[in-house]
Amino acid sequence: MNKPGMTLIVKTIVRISTSLILLYGVYIVAYGQLTPGGGFPGGVIIGAAFILLCLAFGKEVALKKMSTASASILDSAGALIFLGVALLGYIWGTFFLNFFPNKGIPFHLWTAGIIPLCNIGIGLKVSVCLFGAFIALVLFRVAKKEN
Amino acid sequence: MLLIILLIFMIAGAIIALETKNLLSAVIAVGAVGAGVSICFLMLGAPDIAITQMAVETLSLVILIRATISRDLTHVTAQKEVGGLIAIGVFMAIFVLFSTFALMEIPSFGKPLMTVSSHYVQNGLAQTGASNIVSAIILDYRGYDTLGEATILFVAVAGAIVLLRKKGRKKVGEKDE
């Protein structure tokens, strides 16, 4: 067995469970305005799914799913979504104004104006941020070993 | 009662994490402390924070174990200095003294006296439309704070990626200026 990563048992379990973990993270982000959760914990769970892939299959497989360049682009995109939603409030007056006039029916999914948009931005940002930090540390360790 | 047992468990975990010589055991003991904190938050009625604590705890444990502990660094052999211990004792005494003064002033546990928070609780659903009041506060009323936190995370990870990158920007023959 010269393949990178862990044993066959771990790989099989990870192959089944990664999609479920991703789905759970997306659920936590999307329902952040209705149930406990929100952008930050959901983003951490999504990032953890990618880190699980990286641990089980080796870093090449994980980097094929999410390369360093696309990670940095998505990271900046998440931060810009959040900042852009915040700045859009200036059109109607103040910073971070909840500018949707109709807030929707309470306890339905698309309610609460800007809060779901902010949650999506933060979730994108946090997930890719943590994956990027993990990849940076792993690459650093590999580079040190080669020297 | 269960809260006190959890607190004792967490203090024991913290002491083990400080005193053990093996770095891996110390990381696992810190993880036990984090799990205890998460259960405490859940019992005190803060499921948002409990979810965040659990997820971040698991992820940071994985990062600590996998990415930072290399094989030649798992045993700590350094001795503690006497002067450092004395300084820790003095500063802890000062901290405990002043925090006792401060803790006498705050309202008793679980007693909402603040006018701002009662305004949030009464008008949050009508003004923002979010049924999760924590989301309404951190992303609408206090969105500026959350923007600051997101900026901190962004800058920290950008710094880590820049510092730990594999290839430098300089060419091979180029000299420092």
From TrEMBL, chain A:
Main location: membrane
Subcellular location as annotated: Cell membrane
This protein's GO CC annotations: plasma membrane
Transmembrane segments: 12-34, 40-58, 79-100, 120-140
Na+/H+ antiporter MnhB subunit-related protein domain mapped to chain residues: 9-128
Membrane topology of this protein: Multi-pass membrane protein
Signal peptide region: none
Keyword Cell membrane: yes
Family (UniProt): Belongs to the CPA3 antiporters (TC 2.A.63) subunit B family.
Official protein name in the record: Na+/H+ antiporter MnhB subunit-related protein domain-containing protein
